[in-house]
Design a protein that fits this description.
With 340 residues, the protein is an alpha+beta fold. It has two domains: 29-222 and 277-340, no CATH class; 228-272. Helix content is 34%, strand content 17%. It is elongated and about 95 Å long.
Length: 340
């Protein structure tokens, strides 16, 4: 079996639900380095109790919309290889071997646009993109194959100016790859070796957004009624209290039971205990979190996400032309510098 088939076999996989609890019980607080990136269902706990990872963050509509917008925007940009002219200026190097790889087809399975979209998605979620460089016997580049960032276990300095990548194959085996075999494009980094994961750095903001979405879904699923307490004179035994609670929820919980008439007997009284969304500024929180994720984390103008409501001063400032925004410049710039 060749190197390419070993690296790319079973690109997607399914984790049995029976193993999910054991995965979550063994979560590590370290996302990089010797312990490696956590797997598909891994992540870090936020203060809201939500587990945030690069994969689960896409369940947040704001994150998905931003990543999709950046992938579409940057992926549609042509990636042209130029050569400098002796007398000054430049021209397209269409006769260069690398020109069709970067511009048209980096490998037999992907178009140039699909490859760039995958690259941008990796950088915006994991902060790093890795591609395996396939070469012929003479060392010439034949193709570029994107690798899963969550399978990259570690990056080690083996000598001054030389690094080695430890990659986990889909089969579970680990393989060392030299820097000449990997195209590594980094996001923001404090070492210049490994980029920060934007999702893990902003896990509290994303966790708050997901918690707000879950709260809203539970609120409307409970007939738009805050939680409450059933009280009565006297004391109920545990089994009687559980039966009363179960009968109440069966009769009044969920949209299918909306607007039913409640009949309270034997002195039972209903007392509201939750805070209505209006009092907790639920809608204001949803709008602010959209600005927080789109404007501050991904630097995507809000109008590109279909947001037309009044926004803060930051939201108005971020609504400039997309071509002037740093979101459309940073990723292509990193790609250019890494490809040299």
């Amino acid at each position: 079996m060749g190197v390419i088939s070993q690296l790319l076999e079973r690109r997607s996989y399914n984790l049995p639900l029976s193993q999910l609890d054991s995965w979550l019980d063994n979560l590590s607080a370290s996302g990089v380095g010797g312990n490696g990136l956590l797997g598909l269902y891994g992540g870090l706990h936020s203060a809201t109790g939500k587990i945030i990872s690069e994969q689960t963050s896409l369940q947040c509509l704001a994150v998905y919309a931003c990543v999709r917008t950046l992938c579409d925007l940057i992926g549609s940009m042509p990636l042209i290889t130029y050569e400098r002219l002796v007398g000054g200026g430049k021209q397209r190097a269409q006769s260069h071997r690398i020109y069709p790889l970067l511009h048209l087809e980096p490998n037999p399975e992907m178009s140039g646009m699909a490859y760039r979209e995958a690259m941008v998605g990796h950088i915006e979620l994991w902060g790093n993109h890795y591609s395996y460089i396939e070469r012929d016997n003479l060392g010439r580049v034949l193709s570029l194959w994107p690798l899963r960032p969550d399978y990259m276990q570690s990056i080690r300095r083996v000598a001054p100016g030389r690094v080695e990548y430890l990659y986990r194959l889909p089969s579970g085996e680990e393989r060392s790859l030299g820097a000449d075999s990997i195209l590594h494009i980094r996001g923001l980094s404090h070492t210049g070796v490994l980029g920060y994961s934007p999702i893990r750095q902003a896990r509290e903001a994303i966790g708050l957004t997901q918690a707000g979405e879950e709260y809203g879904a539970a609120y409307f699923g409970n007939n738009s009624t805050p939680g409450g307490i059933l009280t009565m004179d006297g004391t109920l035994k545990d089994d009687a209290a559980e039966r009363l609670k179960a009968r109440w929820e069966d009769a009044h919980r969920g949209l299918s039971t909306a607007h039913r008439v409640a009949i309270l007997e034997h002195g039972v009284k209903w007392q509201q205990a939750g805070i209505p969304p209006r009092d907790s500024q639920f809608l204001e929180l949803r709008g602010f979190q959209l600005e927080e994720i789109a404007g501050r984390l991904f630097r995507v103008p809000l109008f590109m996400l279909g947001h037309t409501q009044p926004v803060t001063s930051w939201g108005r400032a971020s609504s400039r032309c997309p071509s002037d925004s740093s979101c459309s410049r940073s990723c292509p710039g990193s790609y250019e510098s890494s490809s040299k």
